[in-house]
Amino acid sequence: MNPEPFLNLDRVIHEKGRLGIMSALAAAPSLGFTELRDLLDMTDGNLTAHLRTLHEAGYVAFTKSLEGARPLTTYLLTPKGRKTFAGYIDLLDQIVRQSKGN
Amino acid sequence: MDNQAASEHLQVIRTLMERTALYRRALAPIMLLTGAIGTAGAVVGMAARIEFMHPFCRFWLAVGIFAMTGALVIARRQSLKTREPVFSPPARRVVIALCPALLLGGSLGLGMIELSNDEARQFLMVPVIWIALYGCALHAAGHFTTRGLRWFGLAYALPACAVLPFTMRPGFDAPWCLPHLIMGLWFGVFHLLYGAYLFITEKKESAT
Among A75, A65, A91, which Cα is nearest to A22's? Predict the structure, then answer.
């Protein structure tokens, strides 16, 4: 079995929590913090930590605005994040196909 | 990572993406068309002096079917344009959410046609119940599409629920044209207003 696809998997995205965030943001133009938290069933602290990691990697961007009187932080995938996520899915697909071929 | 783990990862990604994807096709043209049909329905209903329950239910059920067909045609055109299936997972969820209340409204209308005598004149409760059920349908669908639809649904359901007991009072007497006016206002004018609002905001969003 060729180990190359596995070695190329992006370690930042590969973590379960961050993979969830990337998947959710890939399917929506943008999502609010609470929407992400409720969808992924994460604690505030956990989600904040994962979002920070993804932001530092340049995969996720955020905007701050006001919804009425409440501050609203909205997250979205950057073009780099979108590209990396697509590449990650391609690699997973490759692993599945490779195993089926063996 | 083995085949099994990679498959599971892909499945998790697919499930999450499907759960997150909202129905984002432009609702403005659907709302504007429905509003135009609803307003025209009220004008025709009053001009033709449809004042008994039997023809009223038949007429407005036909208007409703006409409006739904038009909405479906617009949704299909949009999906062809964006090369997506008409019944994509988000679209399916919206339809499933709409169905129970709309089916109940439809069967109520048919039931009224079957049960009522031809001369029944006091039937204001019928449009009010239809409005309440339509509001429930929109509110349910609003969980799978733009959030504003939930509020729009409540603007139908809450006033209708508040007014319904009064329309059922014995001896309640309403002018013959009131049911048409109510249908025209809620299914016509309100749709037009919401459609215009969506048209402006959707344009703004696509410009940014």
Answer: A75
- How much is the ipTM here? 0.72
Least CB–CB distance from B12: residue in A6, A9, A19 = A19
Instruction: List CB contacts of A98: < 8 A, sequence separation 6 or more.
Output: A1, A2, A5, B3
H/E stretch holding A70 reads strand A70-77
Using alpha carbons only, how large is chain A's radius of gyration in Å?
Answer: 15
How far lies B90's CA from each of B16, B70, B93, B126, B144, in Å?
A: 12, 20, 5, 31, 7
Best CA proximity match to B184, nearest among B98, B67, B54: B67
Torsion angles phi and psi, residue B141, rounded to 5: -65, -30
> pTM of the full predicted structure?
0.69
Partners of residue B7 in chain A, C-beta under 8 Å: 96
Percentage with pLDDT > 90 across chain A: 34
B40-68 residue pLDDT tens: 999 999 999 988 888 898 999 999 999 99
Structure tokens at A4: 């190359």
In Å, how far are B26, B79, B95, B118 from B76, measured between CA atoms? 12, 5, 13, 39
Q: Which of B2, B12, B20 to mutate to test the interface with A (most CBs of A within 10 A)?
A: B20
Q: Are A88 and A9 in contact (CB under 8 A)?
A: yes
A1, B15, B182 from B189: Cα distances, Å: 65, 39, 10
